[in-house]
């Protein structure tokens, strides 16, 4: 036997016997719920308790749920002590379950991510968790979305943020905490120095005054980088306040204001804020009733902005004029990589303008122009071509759903998206009726494109001429690796490609 502190002297001591017993009680490969056994073992004596508290047995979320339903706080603590990520989505633990978890957080030193969403914890549960947050030093992510937390619960959480020094991500979406709760959260942002991501989106009834309070806190906040305010009611006044804070804030990199009724005037305010901002990289103002005037204001800011990389302006009514204004400024923009313009009724002229701007743009990798005139009679079931160079056409096998060529296959829609990400993705013209004029303009851009790898033309009636234009551009294109087409256009393209003898 090797010498040293752990060398066995031939005498079997009680601690050795306990280790042997524990190895039988808690085998490492045991996947069953051992929390009740642990509780009983811990109650035998001090030595057993000390040894039990040092055990490491990784438990599943299901075991955590069993412990919560038992109501035994000690068992819950033991499971959480072995866990770094706990997820209890839609487990209906309610207020009592949330209170039990909160009590278990008091001395927890391992849990970093806690997801309790869709669980109906309400104000009482939120307040209990908030109380423990003040002293907890390990939790970094807390998700309490969809829990019917009203103003009192939101205020309790806001108060805990003043003393917490580790929480970096907080999700409180769809809790309907309304004015007082939103105001409390806004006030906490002024003094908190650790929170980097805050989600208070979806039906929290945050209005213009609350948006102004949030904006005021943002002006001095130096740590928050991501803010989601989607699906609220900040209107143009709230957007103006947020825009004003963007001119002073130097930390925020992503903000979402989807469906907040800001209108074109609100968009114009945001455009002014962007002119002075040098940190924002992602902006979402989709679903806000913008017309061509609002789009033109935003477009003008894109010309000089050198930091924004992701811009979403989908589900608006910018039309062909708004698309043309955006296209005009894309030509000189060297930073924007993702642009979402879907559901904007830009038509053939708008599509042509966007296509023309791509000829000079060297930064764009993701463009979504889907659903411009959805509901037309030409909409069909989508399939996809997955193209791997060298490009070669062959006949489809209808029984197997694949092409006989090893270079060309026919797959369900999601297959292409899953296998090509995170390659540069251009979801182009899906679910549109931009017809052959738009397709011809896009084809012209394709001929010279050296960066585009994925092109989606699904749900289109681009006609034979449009199909021919696309096919002809493929003859000279050396970058495209994935092409999405509707079934009817696939058949047309197959015939055209054969005529080119590719």
Description:
This is F-box domain-containing protein. Pfam families: LRR_6. GO terms for molecular function: GTPase activator activity; small GTPase binding. By secondary structure, the chain is an alpha/beta fold. Among the domains are: 206-369, Ribonuclease Inhibitor (Leucine-rich repeat, LRR (right-handed beta-alpha superhelix), Alpha-Beta Horseshoe); 376-502, no CATH class. It has helices spanning 14-25, 35-42, 46-53, 61-70, 73-81, 94-104, 122-133, 151-161, 178-191, 208-220, 235-246, 263-276, 292-304, 319-330, 347-358, 413-420, 435-448, 463-476, 487-500, and strands at residues 85-87, 113-115, 141-143, 169-171, 197-199, 226-228, 254-256, 282-284, 310-312, 338-340, 366-368, 382-387, 396-397, 402-403, 408-411, 454-457, 482-486. α5 packs across α6 (94-104), α8 (151-161) runs parallel beside α9 and α17 runs parallel beside α18 (463-476). The relative contact order is 0.05.
**Share of residues in helices:** 40-55%
Q: How is the largest sheet built, in terms of strand order?
A: 1-2-3-4-5-6-7-8-9-10-11
Structural class, by secondary structure, is alpha/beta
| Helix count, DSSP H or I runs of 4 or more residues | 19
Second-tier CATH architecture of the domain at 206-369: Alpha-Beta Horseshoe
Strand content: 5-15%
Give me the Rg, rounded.
29 Å
Give me the oligomer status: single chain
In terms of per-residue confidence, which ranges show pLDDT below 50 for 5 or more consecutive residues?
Answer: 374-431
pLDDT averaged residue by residue = 76
Cα distance spanning the termini: 76 Å
Q: What is the CATH superfamily of the domain at 206-369? A: Ribonuclease Inhibitor
| Biggest beta-sheet profile | 11 strands, parallel
CATH topology of the domain at 206-369: Leucine-rich repeat, LRR (right-handed beta-alpha superhelix)
Which CATH class of the domain at 206-369 is shown?
Alpha Beta
What's the total number of strands? 17
Task: Name the overall outline.
Answer: elongated
